[in-house]
Protein backbone atom coordinates (compact mmCIF):
# COMPACT_ATOMS: atom_id res chain seq x y z
CA UNK A 1 0.00 0.00 0.00
CA UNK A 2 1.28 3.43 -0.88
CA UNK A 3 1.67 5.76 2.07
CA UNK A 4 1.04 9.40 1.32
CA UNK A 5 2.74 11.94 3.51
CA UNK A 6 1.37 15.00 1.75
CA UNK A 7 -1.60 15.58 4.02
CA UNK A 8 -5.30 14.84 4.13
CA UNK A 9 -6.03 15.74 0.55
CA UNK A 10 -3.92 12.93 -0.86
CA UNK A 11 -5.38 10.39 1.56
CA UNK A 12 -8.86 11.63 0.78
CA UNK A 13 -8.25 11.36 -2.95
CA UNK A 14 -6.84 7.87 -2.54
CA UNK A 15 -9.84 6.64 -0.55
CA UNK A 16 -12.45 8.31 -2.71
CA UNK A 17 -11.89 8.21 -6.44
CA UNK A 18 -12.31 11.03 -8.91
CA UNK A 19 -12.44 10.22 -12.64
CA UNK A 20 -12.33 12.92 -15.31
CA UNK A 21 -13.58 12.04 -18.82
CA UNK A 22 -14.59 13.96 -21.96
CA UNK A 23 -18.07 13.98 -23.51
CA UNK A 24 -18.60 13.73 -27.29
CA UNK A 25 -18.50 17.52 -27.71
CA UNK A 26 -15.34 17.79 -25.58
CA UNK A 27 -17.03 18.97 -22.41
CA UNK A 28 -15.45 17.71 -19.19
CA UNK A 29 -17.33 15.30 -16.91
CA UNK A 30 -15.99 14.25 -13.51
CA UNK A 31 -17.24 11.29 -11.49
CA UNK A 32 -16.82 11.40 -7.71
CA UNK A 33 -17.38 7.98 -6.15
CA UNK A 34 -18.35 7.02 -2.61
CA UNK A 35 -15.64 4.36 -2.61
CA UNK A 36 -13.07 2.89 -5.03
CA UNK A 37 -13.75 0.03 -7.42
CA UNK A 38 -16.17 1.51 -9.96
CA UNK A 39 -15.40 1.61 -13.69
CA UNK A 40 -16.41 5.01 -15.07
CA UNK A 41 -14.64 4.71 -18.43
CA UNK A 42 -17.75 4.23 -20.65
CA UNK A 43 -17.41 6.53 -23.69
CA UNK A 44 -20.06 9.02 -24.80
CA UNK A 45 -21.47 7.53 -28.05
CA UNK A 46 -23.76 10.40 -29.01
CA UNK A 47 -23.13 12.31 -32.25
CA UNK A 48 -23.13 15.72 -30.57
CA UNK A 49 -22.53 18.85 -32.64
CA UNK A 50 -19.69 21.13 -31.54
CA UNK A 51 -20.74 23.47 -28.77
CA UNK A 52 -20.54 27.21 -29.23
CA UNK A 53 -21.73 29.05 -26.17
CA UNK A 54 -21.85 32.73 -26.98
CA UNK A 55 -22.71 34.57 -23.83
CA UNK A 56 -22.26 38.28 -23.73
CA UNK A 57 -21.75 40.51 -20.72
CA UNK A 58 -23.37 43.91 -20.65
CA UNK A 59 -22.89 46.44 -17.91
CA UNK A 60 -26.04 48.20 -16.76
CA UNK A 61 -24.75 51.79 -16.55
CA UNK A 62 -27.50 52.83 -14.15
CA UNK A 63 -27.01 50.13 -11.50
CA UNK A 64 -23.38 49.34 -12.28
CA UNK A 65 -24.29 45.63 -12.45
CA UNK A 66 -23.42 42.98 -15.03
CA UNK A 67 -26.21 41.33 -17.03
CA UNK A 68 -25.51 38.09 -18.93
CA UNK A 69 -27.06 37.65 -22.39
CA UNK A 70 -27.37 33.92 -23.15
CA UNK A 71 -29.80 33.74 -26.06
CA UNK A 72 -28.55 30.24 -27.06
CA UNK A 73 -30.30 28.84 -23.95
CA UNK A 74 -33.83 29.25 -25.32
CA UNK A 75 -33.78 25.72 -26.82
CA UNK A 76 -32.60 23.93 -23.68
CA UNK A 77 -34.26 20.76 -22.38
CA UNK A 78 -37.46 21.62 -20.50
CA UNK A 79 -39.11 19.21 -18.03
CA UNK A 80 -38.48 15.99 -20.01
CA UNK A 81 -40.19 12.71 -19.15
CA UNK A 82 -38.13 10.46 -16.88
CA UNK A 83 -37.32 8.17 -19.84
CA UNK A 84 -35.69 11.18 -21.52
CA UNK A 85 -33.91 12.53 -18.43
CA UNK A 86 -30.43 13.76 -19.41
CA UNK A 87 -29.15 13.31 -15.84
CA UNK A 88 -30.06 9.63 -15.40
CA UNK A 89 -27.23 7.19 -16.23
CA UNK A 90 -26.99 5.84 -19.80
CA UNK A 91 -28.65 2.44 -20.08
CA UNK A 92 -30.39 0.09 -22.52
CA UNK A 93 -29.20 1.93 -25.61
CA UNK A 94 -30.41 5.29 -24.29
CA UNK A 95 -27.63 7.86 -24.08
CA UNK A 96 -27.85 10.63 -21.51
CA UNK A 97 -25.35 13.29 -20.47
CA UNK A 98 -23.73 10.67 -18.23
CA UNK A 99 -22.21 7.78 -20.24
CA UNK A 100 -21.70 5.41 -17.26
CA UNK A 101 -24.36 2.80 -16.44
CA UNK A 102 -24.42 4.08 -12.86
CA UNK A 103 -22.76 6.82 -10.83
CA UNK A 104 -22.62 8.34 -7.37
CA UNK A 105 -21.90 12.03 -7.98
CA UNK A 106 -21.18 13.45 -11.43
CA UNK A 107 -20.37 17.01 -12.41
CA UNK A 108 -20.06 18.21 -15.98
CA UNK A 109 -20.00 21.34 -18.10
CA UNK A 110 -23.54 22.46 -18.93
CA UNK A 111 -24.53 21.85 -22.55
CA UNK A 112 -26.65 25.00 -22.46
CA UNK A 113 -24.51 27.28 -20.28
CA UNK A 114 -25.40 30.77 -19.13
CA UNK A 115 -21.72 31.65 -19.17
CA UNK A 116 -18.78 30.72 -21.35
CA UNK A 117 -17.27 31.26 -24.77
CA UNK A 118 -15.28 34.20 -26.02
CA UNK A 119 -15.17 36.96 -25.05
CA UNK A 120 -17.30 36.74 -21.87
CA UNK A 121 -15.56 33.76 -20.26
CA UNK A 122 -16.83 31.86 -17.25
CA UNK A 123 -18.08 28.32 -16.94
CA UNK A 124 -21.29 26.55 -15.90
CA UNK A 125 -21.36 23.08 -14.41
CA UNK A 126 -24.15 20.71 -13.41
CA UNK A 127 -23.71 18.59 -10.26
CA UNK A 128 -25.81 15.41 -10.04
CA UNK A 129 -26.17 14.20 -6.44
CA UNK A 130 -27.40 10.68 -7.20
CA UNK A 131 -28.35 8.44 -10.11
CA UNK A 132 -31.79 8.01 -8.49
CA UNK A 133 -34.16 10.20 -10.50
CA UNK A 134 -36.77 10.44 -7.72
CA UNK A 135 -34.48 11.20 -4.79
CA UNK A 136 -33.47 14.60 -3.43
CA UNK A 137 -30.62 16.11 -1.43
CA UNK A 138 -32.59 15.77 1.82
CA UNK A 139 -32.80 11.99 1.29
CA UNK A 140 -29.09 11.36 0.62
CA UNK A 141 -27.32 8.92 2.99
CA UNK A 142 -24.33 10.08 5.06
CA UNK A 143 -21.70 8.58 2.76
CA UNK A 144 -23.15 10.47 -0.20
CA UNK A 145 -23.18 13.76 1.69
CA UNK A 146 -19.41 13.40 2.04
CA UNK A 147 -19.02 12.73 -1.67
CA UNK A 148 -21.17 15.71 -2.71
CA UNK A 149 -19.21 17.95 -0.34
CA UNK A 150 -15.95 16.65 -1.78
CA UNK A 151 -17.20 17.41 -5.30
CA UNK A 152 -18.29 20.95 -4.33
CA UNK A 153 -14.95 21.58 -2.63
CA UNK A 154 -12.95 20.24 -5.58
CA UNK A 155 -14.94 22.37 -8.04
CA UNK A 156 -14.70 25.52 -5.91
CA UNK A 157 -10.90 25.19 -5.64
CA UNK A 158 -10.33 24.28 -9.29
CA UNK A 159 -12.72 26.84 -10.81
CA UNK A 160 -11.19 29.55 -8.60
CA UNK A 161 -7.85 28.82 -10.25
CA UNK A 162 -9.14 29.55 -13.76
CA UNK A 163 -7.85 32.89 -15.05
CA UNK A 164 -11.35 34.00 -16.17
CA UNK A 165 -13.04 33.23 -12.82
CA UNK A 166 -13.81 36.01 -10.35
CA UNK A 167 -16.47 34.23 -8.31
CA UNK A 168 -17.59 30.62 -7.89
CA UNK A 169 -21.29 30.30 -7.07
CA UNK A 170 -22.53 26.88 -5.91
CA UNK A 171 -26.31 26.57 -5.84
CA UNK A 172 -29.41 24.41 -6.18
CA UNK A 173 -32.89 25.29 -7.44
CA UNK A 174 -35.55 22.74 -6.57
CA UNK A 175 -39.15 22.67 -7.68
CA UNK A 176 -41.08 23.78 -10.77
CA UNK A 177 -42.42 26.66 -8.63
CA UNK A 178 -39.06 28.39 -8.91
CA UNK A 179 -38.36 27.43 -12.50
CA UNK A 180 -36.41 24.17 -12.34
CA UNK A 181 -36.37 22.60 -15.81
CA UNK A 182 -35.11 19.13 -14.76
CA UNK A 183 -36.57 17.02 -11.93
CA UNK A 184 -33.49 14.84 -11.39
CA UNK A 185 -31.76 15.88 -8.13
CA UNK A 186 -28.97 18.23 -9.12
CA UNK A 187 -27.33 21.54 -8.39
CA UNK A 188 -25.26 23.89 -10.47
CA UNK A 189 -22.05 25.87 -10.25
CA UNK A 190 -21.45 29.15 -12.02
CA UNK A 191 -17.88 30.41 -12.30
CA UNK A 192 -18.63 34.07 -13.01
CA UNK A 193 -16.09 36.31 -14.78
CA UNK A 194 -17.16 39.06 -12.34
CA UNK A 195 -18.12 39.37 -8.66
CA UNK A 196 -21.94 39.35 -8.70
CA UNK A 197 -23.78 42.37 -7.32
CA UNK A 198 -25.15 40.98 -4.04
CA UNK A 199 -21.83 39.42 -3.09
CA UNK A 200 -20.01 42.65 -3.96
CA UNK A 201 -22.44 44.61 -1.79
CA UNK A 202 -21.98 42.21 1.15
CA UNK A 203 -18.19 42.51 0.87
CA UNK A 204 -18.53 46.29 0.89
CA UNK A 205 -20.52 46.09 4.13
CA UNK A 206 -17.90 43.70 5.55
CA UNK A 207 -15.13 46.13 4.63
CA UNK A 208 -16.94 48.95 6.46
CA UNK A 209 -17.48 46.75 9.53
CA UNK A 210 -13.81 45.77 9.61
CA UNK A 211 -12.72 49.40 9.35
CA UNK A 212 -15.03 50.46 12.18
CA UNK A 213 -14.99 47.46 14.51
CA UNK A 214 -11.79 45.70 13.49
CA UNK A 215 -13.60 42.37 13.10
CA UNK A 216 -15.42 40.18 10.58
CA UNK A 217 -19.02 41.29 10.01
CA UNK A 218 -20.22 37.70 9.68
CA UNK A 219 -18.37 36.50 12.80
CA UNK A 220 -20.17 39.31 14.68
CA UNK A 221 -23.55 38.24 13.28
CA UNK A 222 -22.92 34.60 14.17
CA UNK A 223 -21.85 35.56 17.72
CA UNK A 224 -25.06 37.57 18.17
CA UNK A 225 -27.35 34.92 16.64
CA UNK A 226 -25.98 31.78 18.29
CA UNK A 227 -27.93 32.45 21.47
CA UNK A 228 -30.89 34.26 19.91
CA UNK A 229 -34.45 33.09 19.38
CA UNK A 230 -33.92 32.79 15.64
CA UNK A 231 -31.71 29.68 15.87
CA UNK A 232 -33.27 26.74 14.01
CA UNK A 233 -30.65 24.02 14.61
CA UNK A 234 -26.98 23.75 15.50
CA UNK A 235 -24.09 21.32 15.67
CA UNK A 236 -20.69 21.52 17.43
CA UNK A 237 -19.17 23.86 14.88
CA UNK A 238 -22.08 25.26 12.83
CA UNK A 239 -25.30 27.14 13.47
CA UNK A 240 -28.45 27.52 11.34
CA UNK A 241 -30.64 30.55 11.98
CA UNK A 242 -33.24 32.77 10.36
CA UNK A 243 -31.59 36.15 9.74
CA UNK A 244 -33.07 39.09 11.65
CA UNK A 245 -34.03 40.82 8.38
CA UNK A 246 -35.04 37.74 6.37
CA UNK A 247 -36.45 38.59 2.94
CA UNK A 248 -38.24 35.31 2.24
CA UNK A 249 -41.09 33.60 4.13
CA UNK A 250 -38.77 30.82 5.33
CA UNK A 251 -35.08 31.60 5.03
CA UNK A 252 -32.16 29.99 6.88
CA UNK A 253 -28.46 30.83 6.90
CA UNK A 254 -25.91 28.23 8.03
CA UNK A 255 -22.51 29.47 9.22
CA UNK A 256 -19.39 27.94 10.74
CA UNK A 257 -18.53 29.50 14.13
CA UNK A 258 -14.90 29.82 13.11
CA UNK A 259 -13.82 32.26 10.44
CA UNK A 260 -13.62 30.21 7.24
CA UNK A 261 -13.87 31.90 3.84
CA UNK A 262 -14.81 28.89 1.71
CA UNK A 263 -15.31 25.12 1.45
CA UNK A 264 -11.64 24.41 0.63
CA UNK A 265 -10.65 25.68 4.11
CA UNK A 266 -12.84 23.15 5.94
CA UNK A 267 -11.41 19.86 7.22
CA UNK A 268 -13.22 16.79 5.78
CA UNK A 269 -14.96 16.09 9.12
CA UNK A 270 -16.14 19.72 9.34
CA UNK A 271 -17.45 19.53 5.77
CA UNK A 272 -19.44 16.44 6.70
CA UNK A 273 -20.85 18.10 9.82
CA UNK A 274 -21.97 21.07 7.70
CA UNK A 275 -23.69 18.76 5.20
CA UNK A 276 -25.58 16.93 7.96
CA UNK A 277 -26.86 20.24 9.34
CA UNK A 278 -27.79 21.43 5.84
CA UNK A 279 -29.72 18.19 5.20
CA UNK A 280 -31.48 18.67 8.55
CA UNK A 281 -32.60 22.18 7.49
CA UNK A 282 -33.89 20.91 4.13
CA UNK A 283 -35.90 18.19 5.89
CA UNK A 284 -37.47 20.83 8.11
CA UNK A 285 -38.48 22.81 5.00
CA UNK A 286 -40.24 19.73 3.61
CA UNK A 287 -42.09 19.21 6.91
CA UNK A 288 -43.40 22.80 7.06
CA UNK A 289 -46.24 22.08 4.68
CA UNK A 290 -46.00 18.26 4.53
CA UNK A 291 -44.88 18.46 0.91
CA UNK A 292 -41.54 18.81 -0.87
CA UNK A 293 -40.67 22.49 -0.50
CA UNK A 294 -39.57 24.42 -3.56
CA UNK A 295 -36.29 26.01 -2.51
CA UNK A 296 -33.22 27.92 -3.61
CA UNK A 297 -29.98 27.15 -1.79
CA UNK A 298 -26.59 28.72 -2.41
CA UNK A 299 -23.14 29.02 -0.92
CA UNK A 300 -21.47 32.32 -0.20
CA UNK A 301 -17.70 31.97 -0.41
CA UNK A 302 -14.67 34.17 -1.01
CA UNK A 303 -14.14 35.61 -4.50
CA UNK A 304 -11.22 34.22 -6.48
CA UNK A 305 -9.12 37.37 -6.16
CA UNK A 306 -10.99 40.28 -4.60
CA UNK A 307 -10.84 40.71 -0.80
CA UNK A 308 -10.65 36.99 0.02
CA UNK A 309 -10.26 37.70 3.75
CA UNK A 310 -13.52 39.67 4.02
CA UNK A 311 -15.75 36.74 3.12
CA UNK A 312 -17.17 34.14 5.52
CA UNK A 313 -18.55 30.83 4.28
CA UNK A 314 -22.31 30.31 4.56
CA UNK A 315 -25.09 28.25 3.02
CA UNK A 316 -28.32 30.18 2.50
CA UNK A 317 -31.58 28.47 1.74
CA UNK A 318 -35.08 29.81 1.34
CA UNK A 319 -38.47 28.75 0.09
CA UNK A 320 -40.84 31.19 -1.58
CA UNK A 321 -43.78 29.15 -0.19
CA UNK A 322 -45.44 31.27 2.51
CA UNK A 323 -48.48 29.06 3.12
CA UNK A 324 -50.04 25.92 1.71
CA UNK A 325 -50.60 26.58 -2.00
CA UNK A 326 -49.31 30.16 -1.75
CA UNK A 327 -46.05 31.53 -3.08
CA UNK A 328 -44.26 34.79 -2.40
CA UNK A 329 -43.80 36.64 -5.69
CA UNK A 330 -41.33 39.39 -6.39
CA UNK A 331 -43.77 42.19 -7.16
CA UNK A 332 -43.29 45.92 -7.68
CA UNK A 333 -41.73 46.73 -4.32
CA UNK A 334 -39.24 43.86 -4.53
CA UNK A 335 -38.57 43.93 -8.30
CA UNK A 336 -38.94 47.60 -9.00
CA UNK A 337 -37.80 49.25 -5.79
CA UNK A 338 -35.59 46.53 -4.32
CA UNK A 339 -37.47 46.70 -1.02
CA UNK A 340 -38.63 43.32 0.27
CA UNK A 341 -41.89 43.11 2.20
CA UNK A 342 -42.01 39.99 4.36
CA UNK A 343 -45.29 38.44 5.51
CA UNK A 344 -43.76 36.32 8.26
CA UNK A 345 -41.78 37.46 11.30
CA UNK A 346 -38.33 35.80 11.33
CA UNK A 347 -38.83 34.81 14.98
CA UNK A 348 -42.08 33.00 14.08
CA UNK A 349 -40.46 31.34 11.05
CA UNK A 350 -37.60 30.12 13.28
CA UNK A 351 -40.03 28.70 15.84
CA UNK A 352 -41.99 26.84 13.14
CA UNK A 353 -38.77 25.45 11.65
CA UNK A 354 -37.52 24.35 15.09
CA UNK A 355 -40.79 22.48 15.61
CA UNK A 356 -40.69 20.90 12.14
CA UNK A 357 -38.38 18.07 13.13
ZN1 LIG B 1 -33.08 11.41 -14.03
UniProtKB/TrEMBL annotation:
Cofactor(s) this protein cannot do without: Zn(2+)
GO molecular function per UniProt: UDP-glucose:hexose-1-phosphate uridylyltransferase activity; zinc ion binding
EC assignment: 2.7.7.12
Enzyme class, first EC level, given as a word: transferase
Catalytic activity from the UniProt record: alpha-D-galactose 1-phosphate + UDP-alpha-D-glucose = alpha-D-glucose 1-phosphate + UDP-alpha-D-galactose
GO biological process, one term: galactose catabolic process via UDP-galactose, Leloir pathway
Identification of the protein by name: Galactose-1-phosphate uridylyltransferase
Species name: Actinomadura darangshiensis
Amino acid sequence: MTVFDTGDEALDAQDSPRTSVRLADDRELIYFDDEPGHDRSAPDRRPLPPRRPRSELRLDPVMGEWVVMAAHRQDRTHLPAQSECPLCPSADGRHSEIPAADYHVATFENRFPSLGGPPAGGRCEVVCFTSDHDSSFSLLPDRRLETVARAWTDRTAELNRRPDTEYVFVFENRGVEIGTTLHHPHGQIYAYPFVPARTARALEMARGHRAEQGSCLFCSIVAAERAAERVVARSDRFVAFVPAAARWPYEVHIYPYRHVTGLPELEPDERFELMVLYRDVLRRFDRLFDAPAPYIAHFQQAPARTDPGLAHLSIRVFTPRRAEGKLKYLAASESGAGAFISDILPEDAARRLREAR
